[in-house]
Amino acid sequence: MSAVVTETRVSRGGKYLTFALGKEEYGLEILKVREIIGYMDVTAVPRTPDYVKGVINLRGQVISVIDLRAKFGMETAPRTEQTCIIVVDIRQDGRRLNTGIVVDRVSEVLNITAENIEAAPEFGSTIDTSFILGMGKIGQNVKILLDIDKVLSQQDVAAIAEIPESQDAAPADPA
Amino acid sequence: MPEQAIVIQELAGATMSASADDLQALASLHTMLEQIAGMGPDADEIQPPATPPQRDLAMQARELVGKIMLADVADTEAALRTVQSMVGDLQRLMNGQAVEHPSVQAAAPLAPVTQPAKDAHPHNEPVQAESPINRDDLPLIQEFMAEAISHLDAAEAELLRLEQDSANADAVNAVFRSFHTIKGVAGFLNLKQIGAVAHVAENVLDLARQGRIQISGPIASIVLEASDMLRSLIADLDEAVKKDVAPAVNPGVVDLIDRLRAVAEGRDASARATSTSPAPAAEPAAPPADRRAGADRRKNDRRQQDTTGEGTVKVSTERLDSLINMVGELVIAESMVSQNVASLAKGNHRLLRNLGHLGKITRELQDLSMAMRMVPIQGVFQKMTRVVRDLSQKAGKQVDLVITGGETELDRNVVEAIHDPLIHMVRNSADHGIELPADRKTVGKPTAGRIELKAQHKAGSIVIEISDDGRGLNKKKILRKAIDAGIIREGQELDEQEIFRLIFHAGLSTAEKVTDVSGRGVGMDVVRRNIEALRGQIEITSTEGKGATFAIRLPLTLAVIDGLLVRVGEERYILPITSIEQSLRPKAQQISTVQNRGEVCMVRGDLLPLFRLHRLFDVKPRNEDPTQALVVIVRDNERQCCLLVDELLGQQQVVIKSLGESVGQVPGVSGGAILGDGNVCLILDVPGLIALSTRPAQGS
């Protein structure tokens, strides 16, 4: 079973929507993305974790909005013209659910072939990388491809911001 | 054991009336052909048994019917015509006429059925493990589950009718048909357990149909048990379909089948009306004409069903809900446009008139879409009949259940949510309220108790009343228990309503003995919580010795509430109007602190706890000073308290949206609403807020 999982993980070539959080570039499988909306007023919901920004009205549907920076333990960034909400279609306990994620900037849609995707590097026990599908190599740049279902379902995602930026997307080699 | 001549006639009738897309009719054809071929279980074996050529012909016809059902033949209509001619041939064969049917002679390998059917289906055949579900059958299985449930609902209603009037032949037939259909389709879909249970139950019912037993007392109970078993098997099946595994084997099936067999075979002597001559040959067979009349009636029934089906469309609730959501959006968008345009279009009368027209249409559309969700409460009430029946039998009581206002309509969601609390309360009435017949006699009441279920509309809400003529609530006993349980202090003054309301307290049960139906001290507080979750209220009136009435007042719909929009700092919240008592600007002398921690506010001589909404929700308020802000006095069923807010923004009707899916349960918040400006506003849950603020402080 685990062999199958690894298999699908590394061979997930396809279209990805890339976006930026600070200096880091991330990618989301395009099939998970419902739409991108400009930042709007978010109604805060009391007594929820701080990465839950609140709820918004998406054409009559109340959906929650997650601050991805807070989720990843990054410092908060001021809201700019480019700040936007990506509405993703996630699965939780077998149900489909629309959730908004706040990102600094949406970049582009990229076609990343399977051979350009490396497995997520291991950082030992300090950083959990189970929510990373893989690292996509685009020329000199590296995009962190997220398994958004896992990102949003995990209670506490270890600070991804601490991933060293010079990381060469080297394949995870235990040696 | 059915006579060959009768079976073949029924078969011929059924074949002629069947259509290629009527799965149920085909399934019963399938069953009948099996019966003729001697493949059915022993009780269905026909007399005299079919000869080998007859059997082969029946087998071939059966196979073809199976193919039609699976749409495994190119032209199902043509195939059905072939089946019809095969059945015609079969009929002629059985009448001793020669038939020229080369296909039969040639195709049949004439493998003689050496074993009698009896041995092929040994008596105590263990229920085999179910085979995995064939994915191709999924649509059929899903359809089957829905239809089986409605068949069981119908059968139960008829069974209960039979208990009043066991000679009611129509009711017997209706119940028989329900089980028969379930058996047929289950057999075809290879659902062994369901098929087996339905089959033996059908055998019992067949005896009743022939007038050899009466459906009453223990027999009615066992048939109801079979119905329950089928329901749970269907639930298992549903589960299995979802998980894509083979249905689980239910350990109770074998025992139930044994007991049903015992009844069917007359081993349970007490259950038989006529017990002396079980010899099948001696049994006077109903004249064929009768049977045909039965078949005709069946045909008519089907036609009737078709006509009632005309003009209605089944729509999935999901679609309906999203339609209602979109209409809600339309209403909001319309009011936004109207506001914008009205300020710009001064003097443009035509535009304003058109806008007014649009507004009217929108509101009509909203009313219409709301009405689509309304269903009569009768279905829930009907289920109570069963509850009362089972319970009174178990407790040795006589209870008549009288239902009025079953046609009253309310939101489908409310109907579903009211089901469990209602069962609890009806159980309570039957278990605690109604006395034993002997006790009733001594106090001069009729031996049969009476429980009344009533639903009616009253001032924009629906009131459901459960009243009984039993012993009523015993105030002294309730008080005693409450004091013992430490809920109230000795000597505390309580008015009647307050005493009655104590029974909703967790951990207080006045039942003298703990029964398996009620009296565990969990019932009523759950009832209260459920009703409150529906934004409803319960009122109790009771006279000791005369009976008790529980009146549940519920909103007609869960989708819309009247709310008061309040502001705290930059945040806006909605408080349900139903939980608001009044609002005021407190004077300094009204506010005092307790041990420097809690705050209280004196309102008309009552000291009420004061909770600052901004502290509970951790937002920055405009006014820290209560005398510059406002307090809103809210109450849940038990207590009042004051909430400190910055400003009241006005009253409005809002459509409730659940937050459950996106952010989960938030304490103190019952949902979200979309305001006229398109923003989401949280709806406050008053009981939740009170619970939140009375909980030990957590850093806030």
Provide the descriptors you would attach to this structure in a database record.
heterodimer; A: 175 residues; mainly beta; OB fold (Dihydrolipoamide Acetyltransferase, E2P); 6-stranded mixed sheet; 3 helices; 11 strands; globular; disordered N terminus; disordered C terminus; B: 700 residues; alpha+beta; Four Helix Bundle (Hemerythrin (Met), subunit A); 5-stranded mixed sheet; 23 helices; 18 strands; 17% strand
Spell out the blueprint of helices and strands.
The complex is a heterodimer of chains A (175) and B (700).
Chain A (H helix, E strand, L loop, with lengths): L1 H9 L3 E8 L2 E6 L3 E6 L13 E7 L2 E7 H4 L12 E9 L2 E9 L1 E8 L4 E2 L13 E7 L2 E6 L1 H6 L22
Parallel strand pairs in A: 2-11, 5-7
Antiparallel strand pairs in A: 1-2, 1-8, 3-6, 4-5, 6-7, 9-10, 10-11
Chain B lengths: L3 H14 L5 H14 L15 H18 L6 H19 L7 H6 L9 H4 L17 H27 L4 H20 L3 H18 L7 H27 L8 H13 L23 H22 L7 H28 L4 H24 L1 E3 L1 H18 L3 E6 L4 E3 H22 L3 H6 L6 E10 L2 E8 L6 H10 L11 H6 L21 H11 L3 E7 L3 E9 L4 E9 L2 E6 L3 E5 L6 E4 L3 E6 L2 E7 H5 L12 E6 L4 E6 L1 E11 L2 H4 L5 E6 L5 E5 L1 H9 L6
Helix pairs in contact in B: 1-2, 1-4, 1-12, 2-3, 2-8, 3-4, 7-8, 7-10, 8-9, 9-10, 9-11, 10-11, 13-14, 15-16, 16-20
